[in-house]
Amino acid sequence: MPKRLIFILLIVSSCQSQGNLTILGDLSNDLKEVSAVAYYKSENHFWIIEDSGNKNEIFALDQKGDIVKSVVVTNAENRDWEDLTFDKKGNLYVGDFGNNSKDQILYTIYRINHESLKNREVSAEKIDFFLPPEHNPEDFEAFFLRNNSIYLFSKDNKITSVYKVPNLTGKHEAIFITEYNLPGKHNKVTSADISDDGKTAILLNHDKLWKLTNFNGEDYFSGHIEKLVFKHDSQKEGVCFKTDSTVVITDERNGSEGGNFYEFNLLENKKGANN
Fold this sequence. Notes:
It is a single chain. The chain is mostly beta strands. The protein has a single domain, classed as 6 Propeller (Neuraminidase). It has one helix and 23 strands. Mean pLDDT is 90; it is low at 3-15.
């Protein structure tokens, strides 16, 4: 095949879409079970993790999804890493709180100092939490940080429960905030994020995104709720804000499907929105 044609095909493939998702690039074949993504603006890198059964390692990706750096968390075990977020100082938080079997009692969030991310190995601070005694164990795959508190969203087909944990090292009893029954089907929340101004929260499902705005305080379901449908179904596990109106999404690789790095515009894709 002529080199010029190959070059043209590469350009076209880098801008292809899946429904209303724009594919930015393919994730490395070494990353088969990407479970979260977080954007570090100062370096223009996306950080990702893999979930249970994989190494206690985090990866920095460029804008096309290529690995530019990996960092081992020496004092952590990847029991079931499920989500990532940054605070305003650039410290990275790894949520080790997946609980598919519902037998986990103590959950852990690892906090990594932003200066340590320059190294190949880091030691993380630990934020441990447990649920109130009257609450059954939950499976969590989504969280974000706001006002120095960590908000967690349970993964459930019917009702999503929201809990709060202080952003402090040590062991804490989580505070139950609210619960909400997202309308429709296939509403397991697999990742979450909140905009820099704290006014827009997003929750990820495999085939759609929930956009939450105009909420009161920490009751994130008290305001306007929009359902933004992707027109594409895959095992999407990671979402983060890139700008106030654009998010980046990752999905797990399943054979020849998935393993991609997507961009989605919140303002241009309002078809199928619900209150």
